[in-house]
Request: fold
Amino acid sequence: MGKINSYELCEEKIHLLKEYVSTGEEILNSMTSWENLEGILAQRDYLIRKMEQIENNVEESKFLHPCTKEQEKEIDRLVKLILDIDKNAMDLIKDEQQKTIDELKANQQKQRALKYDLVGRETQGQRMDIRK
Reply:
C-alpha cells in the first residue's frame, strides 16, 4: 500500500466490513449445505487478514483520529451486525449439531431394536427344535 490518508483507510475498512457481512450472510444461508462453507470461510479469513493489514496501517500512520464520526458510526454499526450474524450462525450450528445427535440416537435405537428382533427370532426357532 502506498501513501494513503486516514479517510481512505477508514473507507477501505468499511468496505471490508460490508464484504464480511455479506460473507456472514452466505454462511447463514449455507448452513445446511456444508460443502459450500469451505470456500466461504476461506473468503472470510482473507477479509480478516485484509482488515488486520488496515489496522496495522492505521497504527503505523499514528493518526490521532483516523476516522470521521460518520465513519466510526458506520464501523460500529457493521461490527454490531457482524456480531449478530455470528451469534445467529452459532445458534444454527448448535441446532444442526443437536439435530444430528438426535438422528444418530434414533438410528442407534432402531439398530438395537432390529438386533433384538433378529436375536429373538433365532432363539424362538431353537426352542421349538429342542421341544421336539
